[in-house]
Amino acid sequence: MKHSVEENKYVELTYRVIDQKTGHVLTTVEFPLGYVHGVNEVLAPQVMAELEGKSVGDTISVPIDCTDLYGPRDESLVIIDLIENVPKQYREVGMRILMENEKGQTKSFLVTRIDEKTLTIDGNNPLCGRKVVFELEILRVRDATDEEINAGGKVERGPDIGEGPAIPI
Is the pTM of this model over 0.85? Predict the structure, then answer.
């Protein structure tokens, strides 16, 4: 019996995100992403809706305007500082920096540019302002166990090391 994606089904899939304007692949998820459908939303709501009714082996493409997901780009979240003011461990493009404001709220920033004198960080979501296509391939669909439904995904177990005799210290 071929299962299709619906509520309380365990689903595994891979996907990639492609910029519609440039055709560049922005993200590739090669290791299967597993979740329980209808219990937790691991991807954008539009993507989750398009997965409904699909089966193992199906591939789908879902265009998304990321402004709908993340709002418009906010240039006040782009900060340029002198490189000498930035600790050495953060001086790498692609590095994530968690910053806290005076109210104790945290926000993640991404180092996007470095030159001889300055470093630029950006607090906007990297997809903000882009139109992308999610290309997904469904690898597995089956009934989820009660435990998986409660957890929202596959429940991994560590090795059973048993309860051996106590070792005196």
Answer: no
Q: What is the structure's pLDDT at 162? A: 60
Which of 2, 7, 4 is closest to 53 using CA atoms? 4
Token digits of residue 61 = 């493409």
The yes-or-no verdict on residue 118 having pLDDT over 90 is yes
Runs of H (alpha helix) within the chain: 45-51, 66-70, 146-151
Residue 11 β-bridge partners: 35, 141
User: Tokens 């992403």, residue?
Assistant: 33
CATH of 9-69+128-151, one of 3.40.228.10, 3.40.1210.10, 3.10.50.40, 2.60.40.1120: 3.10.50.40
